[in-house]
Write a sequence for this structure.
């Protein structure tokens, strides 16, 4: 009892320390990205050699304080908590030490114009890499950290590897600059700068929307809007997850925020627990491909490619809408299969009753999105657009009486955003290690040559290999680091076969998102399974079935860049955008979605036999083949077949459903 009493002040101090450091980090991030409006001179952006190590130092403290090794070790070996505490303090001291050395060295380079590296600097860079690999493993699991360990091993032993993997002998002393003492590549390189300057404002924006009531009202209104659909709450889950996910940016976060409401309702309507979890998981993960925010990944894509942010979200719009249309269609077929009837009984729940306040709260979502788009059209940077939307939501949040009663909710949201961002930076630091190795060894270019040789210059095989690799590398990772890791390795191979820079990045991004529902490490599906009380693997498999179109859409826009609309989607010498080609792919894509969605559910107007499932899948593939003679023939066969199916069985199904 005395031990518990004595531990309470320490726990309270720790909790307040986490809160305060996260809040201060958010404030610094706000000031750093604040645009000038011609009224007050901006304080930021701060020099990179100050802001990057400072934010990362705060992030390390937040991660260790909120997820200490002492807690994990004490849970397994109660008498060994001191070992975990010692490990926490050692990692914290090592991280702060290498960050201070980084800052001191960069100041020295600025003053003298050069720096002479020694084995001491090599040791510092290795310690820095090790610290962030350990912390990323702790926060995000093993996959990304293992990839970094493999990269480091290759970095130091590449001269002994065979074939195309053989590198020039490494100058050990200058490896320190590649990994650590570098403002362009490495752990504190440009990618870290992009996250701090451009992405952080959108994380703040998403957290404010979630914490000040807008997200909750959005879910209630989605349920209300879809009440007349047979799929009801399943359609509500898709709608709410798409709108909420574009701002939250995290598949698991989206599942938890929307799934706790929608999944029980989907089950109540008569759908299986695995289907309820699968629909929520695949809809939540796809929020990151839905413009205009796209979970902030589009911001990083814009900085990496040099393509304007507005161009990227315009290009991503139709593929995202096509994917969500496939989810709606799959729910329709599943509802038919189960004989689910339209009902409004779930709306009787008090927490789902839509009030006038919910309509007011939605203003907090609509206005920031409009501001982002307007600011981008007027030429403001992505960071400036994000900060403008962020500042708009502060006064708008007071439309919610809960915020008026407790204005500290706004500060709480900032602190929560700081903590979330700190956790994300652990993964980004590890990505920086991988980027440094890739840049120093030239492996992406060699890998592009290898893929080209293996595929024989065939675009489909290259895309297939890239997609599989993206799914494997992305398992268990947050989408953003997964996308970065994959595109830096495999992007050059796709561009080498004629794919444009924009299409290549969107292709990889789609598969990075899809990895969150792909077994065996389907993190979004497992989160949904825990809410749905369904078997995790079964839920993941259902998410893959329902979301099968997500795996096909990237191939569609790779072969038909007209779907992306924007000029940057077309390779040099290509015809560019034209109405006939655009109308052709839209018509075929709608038919493709219908065939795929009904085939994966194995139901249309009646249960589909295996032969018809195979026929529908085959026709769907043929419809997307680039040869006009093939795809238009397939369209004709598909229309005749679907017409026959509707005529032969629709009336029969209606008569059966009307029987008492």
């Amino acid at each position: 009892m005395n031990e518990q009493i004595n531990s309470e002040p320490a726990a309270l101090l720790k909790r307040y320390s986490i809160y305060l450091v996260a809040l201060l980090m958010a404030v610094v991030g706000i000031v750093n990205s604040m645009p000038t409006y011609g009224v007050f001179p901006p304080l930021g952006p701060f020099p990179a050699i100050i802001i990057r190590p400072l934010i990362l130092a705060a992030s390390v403290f937040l991660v260790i304080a909120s997820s200490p090794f002492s807690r994990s070790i004490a849970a397994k070996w109660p008498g060994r908590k001191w070992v975990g505490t010692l490990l926490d303090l050692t990692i914290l001291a090592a991280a702060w030490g290498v960050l201070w050395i980084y800052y001191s060295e960069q100041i020295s380079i600025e003053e003298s114009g050069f720096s002479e590296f020694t084995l001491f600097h090599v040791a510092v860079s290795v310690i820095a890499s090790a610290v962030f690999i350990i912390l990323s493993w702790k926060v995000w699991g093993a996959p990304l950290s293992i990839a970094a360990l493999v990269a480091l091993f290759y970095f130091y032993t590449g001269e002994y590897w065979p074939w195309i993997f053989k590198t020039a002998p490494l100058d050990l002393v200058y490896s320190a600059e590649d990994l650590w003492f570098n403002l362009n590549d490495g752990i504190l390189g440009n990618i870290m700068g992009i996250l701090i300057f451009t992405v952080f404002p959108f994380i703040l924006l998403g957290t404010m929307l979630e914490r000040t009531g807008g997200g909750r009202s959005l879910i209630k209104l989605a349920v209300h809007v879809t009440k007349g659909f047979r799929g009801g709450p399943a359609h509500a889950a898709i709608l709410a997850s798409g709108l909420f996910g574009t701002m939250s940016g995290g598949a698991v976060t989206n599942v938890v925020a929307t799934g706790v409401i929608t999944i029980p309702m989907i089950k109540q309507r008569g759908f299986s627990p695995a289907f309820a979890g699968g629909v929520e998981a695949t809809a939540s993960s796809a929020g990151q491909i839905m413009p205009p925010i796209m979970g902030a990944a589009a911001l990083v894509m814009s900085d990496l490619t040099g393509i304007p942010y507005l161009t990227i979200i315009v290009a991503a719009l139709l593929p995202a809408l096509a994917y969500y249309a496939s989810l709606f269609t799959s729910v329709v077929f599943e509802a038919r299969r189960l004989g689910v009837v339209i009902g409004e009984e779930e709306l009787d729940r008090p927490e789902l009753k839509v009030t006038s306040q919910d309509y007011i709260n939605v203003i907090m979502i609509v206005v920031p999105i409009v501001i982002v788009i307007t600011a981008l059209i007027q030429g403001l940077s992505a960071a400036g657009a994000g900060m403008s939307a962020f500042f708009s939501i502060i006064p708008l949040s007071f439309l919610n009486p809960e915020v008026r009663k407790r204005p500290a909710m706004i500060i709480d949201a900032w602190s929560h955003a700081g903590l979330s961002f700190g956790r994300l930076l652990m993964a980004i630091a590890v990505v920086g290690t991988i980027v440094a190795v890739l840049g120093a060894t030239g492996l992406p270019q060699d890998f592009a040559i290898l893929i080209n040789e293996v595929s024989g210059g065939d675009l489909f095989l290259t895309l297939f290999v890239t997609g599989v690799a993206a799914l494997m590398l992305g398992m268990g990772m947050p989408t953003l680091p997964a996308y970065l890791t994959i595109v830096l390795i495999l992007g050059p191979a796709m561009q080498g076969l004629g794919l444009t820079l924009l299409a290549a990045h969107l292709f990889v991004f789609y598969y990075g998102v899809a990895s969150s529902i792909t077994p065996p490490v389907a993190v979004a599906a497992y989160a949904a399974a825990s809410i749905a009380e369904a078997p995790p693997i079964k839920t993941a498999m259902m998410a893959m079935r329902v979301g099968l179109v997500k795996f096909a859409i990237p191939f569609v826009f790779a072969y038909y860049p007209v779907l992306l609309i924007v000029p940057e989607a077309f390779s040099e010498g290509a015809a560019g955008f034209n109405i006939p080609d655009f109308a052709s792919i839209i018509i075929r894509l709608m038919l493709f979605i219908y065939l795929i969605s009904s085939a994966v559910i194995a139901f249309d107007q009646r249960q589909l036999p295996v032969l018809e499932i195979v026929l529908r899948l085959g026709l769907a593939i043929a419809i997307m083949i680039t040869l006009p003679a093939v795809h238009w023939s397939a369209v004709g066969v598909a229309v005749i077949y679907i017409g026959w199916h509707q005529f032969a069985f629709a009336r029969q199904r209606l008569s059966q459903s009307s029987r008492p």
